[in-house]
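Page 47, continued from p. 46.
Same chain as before, 489 aa.
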Amino acid sequence: MDPGRKAMIAGRRSPTRRDVTSPRHDPTNRITKSTKPSGSKINPKYLTQDEQSRQFVADEDKFVLKQSKKKADIRIREGRAKPIDYLAFNLRYIDTDRDIFDDDDADIEIDVPAPGDVVASLDAEQIAELESDIASYHVLETNATNREYWRALQTICKDRKAKLDPHGHERRVVSSVSDDIDKILAPKTHDQLEALEKQIKAKLQSNEDIDTDYWEQLLRSLRVWKARAKLNQVYETIKETRLNQLKERDPTKVKASGQPTSAPKVTFGSQPVPPASEEKVSPAPASSSRHVGTTAPPGTERFSQVDNVDFSQATKALYDREVARGVDENEEIFTSEEAVTTSKPQWADKYRPRKPRYFNRVQMGYDWNKYNQTHYDHDNPPPKVVQGYKFNIFYPELIDKTKAPTFKIIREHGRRRGESFAAAGEEDTCLIRFMAGPPYEDIAFRIVDREWDYSAKKDRGFKSSFDKVCSSGPLHFTSRGRAKSLPLH
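Result:
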């Protein structure tokens, strides 16, 4: 009987017959069908025209960037480098996209100056050229770390360009206050500067009655120091990477020297600039490390060490005392310094003229005259007005300490005491000029020209004192209304 028929009668499935033309089934030899290619592996010819254009531009930019770095390497090896070449060459140690086959074995022996030193050594014309070169690298770069590096350099160049242009922009915060700001920002890390930046922005956006010019200048300076901190981070990584490569190449040489050769001095302009590693920045006093908004504003940590030990210590104690006191609720840091026109002093050939350091405050408050009492109240107070000043000017290196500094009031345009040339709703101003003698130049501040209070009342009136190193004195104005305080209802 046919096997199939016998199986059917027995109730079993008929045995399947193998197709002699099909591949032989073997557990160790599987035959699988190829899958359809995924969209990411589609042939480029199937890309849209826009996608092809973008791909072409990206490839072109990548090629141009690679060639620019190669040219920089070649110029440095041949000793004819431009400023931008040093900045690009520094990146070789941290650039993850760099092709190692583009490097020469001798490149690691080349000492390259720190990025900040390169920028600091340029004049105005060279800075303009460098800004253009940096912008080109920044546009072509796709690596996030490299873009941050170029962006920080753009900020440093912008700051350097502003400092080289004496007529670039006017600002109330003069050089002496900029030094104060630099001293408080210099010791901070990149993360600390970012946190401080958020606090300053919040303060500027608040409705507090603050010196906007001062805080905006502080924010501008902070961004520059944040860029410097970023460059320092990058340069420290570069030095560490280079040291490791030197160890791998010649451990005995690195062990003998202890560290790779320090960055060389670089000269692109008329004056050589020492490397950043040789610069020392003294940390800010711990007594003034206070937060924005709740304590004394930055800029209260100014003190320059002097040669005379006794007087420098005395001045530092006085200054630290002022810093520790901070500013009261009704006070602000006063920095409205004015340029002083004067002839060259006779002692200039014997002593180096210098500007004195100072830490001044302006006192603000409400003037409750009859008009303000009528139109304002406790919940809706009038605008604050200047009620006085506190000057603290330091003369630690004064030659003749037996002669106290003096001051005088200067009213412009022939205006006399008691006269007013100001428009309605405004107040006249005048200059208060302080004079001390060699080696200090005169220093002047613009203040509101109102009648001074010479009374002997506590925390009021006018007082001037000099204790060999510091000239100080509070100055208050007389009240223009009978009501001395806010009336209670």
